[in-house]
User: Fold this.
Amino acid sequence: MRRKVVLSCGQCFARNYTTEKKQTETGRIEVKKFCKQCNMHSLHRETK
Assistant:
């Protein structure tokens, strides 16, 4: 089963993306994505 998580920008902390991950995964997701607020690619991390 999967659950929804929200990704926020590491630079401006804007919550831009949602994704899903397995419930058995323990670590937080880190993905490099484009931020519309910063207008550049930055590291997006899973928020609580």
Q: What stands out?
A: Strands lie at 2-9, 15-22, 30-35, 40-46. The two ends are 18 Å apart (CA to CA). The first strand starts at residue 2 and ends at 9.
